[in-house]
Amino acid sequence: MPSHTVENYLKALLALGKDGRVVNVSALSGYLEVSKPSASAMVKSLHAQGLVHYQRYKPLSLTDAGAKAAALVVRKHRLTEMYLVDRMGFGWEEVHDIAEQIEHIDSAKFFERMDELLGHPKVDPHGSPIPSVEGVIDRKNYSRLADAAAGDTLHLKAVTHETGNLLSFLNRKSIALGTVFEVLNVEPFDGSVDVVYGAEKYRETLSREVSQCLLVE
Predict the structure, then answer these.
(1) Considering just the CA atoms, what is the radius of gyration of the chain in Å?
(2) Which of 90, 112, 115, 138 could be cross-linked to 84 through a Cys-Cys bond (beta carbons 3.0 to 4.6 Å apart)?
(3) Other C-beta atoms within 10 Å of 149: how many?
(4) CA separation for the pair 99, 214 (Å, rounded)
(5) How far is Cα 29 from Cα 37, in angstroms, rounded to an integer?
(6) Whole-prediction pTM value?
(7) Four-residue CA torsion sign, 17, 125, 178, 203
(8) How far is 68 from 111, CA to CA, in rounded Å?
């Protein structure tokens, strides 16, 4: 089985390459907060293992085997997050760091049982798709609240960042998955979005930074 370090590199390459973005060693080292020489050495090792396509001065990409291995790590991570929220009562803002540790457990039966107990969920607590056991990721084509227009009515389906600061902010504003936003105005100057939501008809102005992180339909 891949080491924890290999799994982290594969997962990073999967995340960075999402939506067809170009990935290079510099971007990878920045994402993982490691030196460029360390990232370069690991990429060459992953290439030798048949997990990464690598040519000098060319963009990096995962091979089919690498993409599947990465998706299966993501599957374990997101199942764990769902279990922590659904069965153990953790908040969605608390689970990322715990799942980062549990995702490296090498036991298919452990995660199969977790999946069964949860009823085979399709998304994690943040709305991100849970890859299948074959490593297939069913990505949804959601739009961002930042791209909405006045008069739109939109459902919050996912968040793009799982950082505790963002999620705690959303908690304080009583915003969760499934929240229905009525868009009142989008400010041309700074891109902030005025919305009304919830049975209580909360009215908030969400910054462009926040609204960029909210995926809606």
Answers:
(1) 19
(2) 90
(3) 9
(4) 22
(5) 9
(6) 0.92
(7) negative
(8) 16
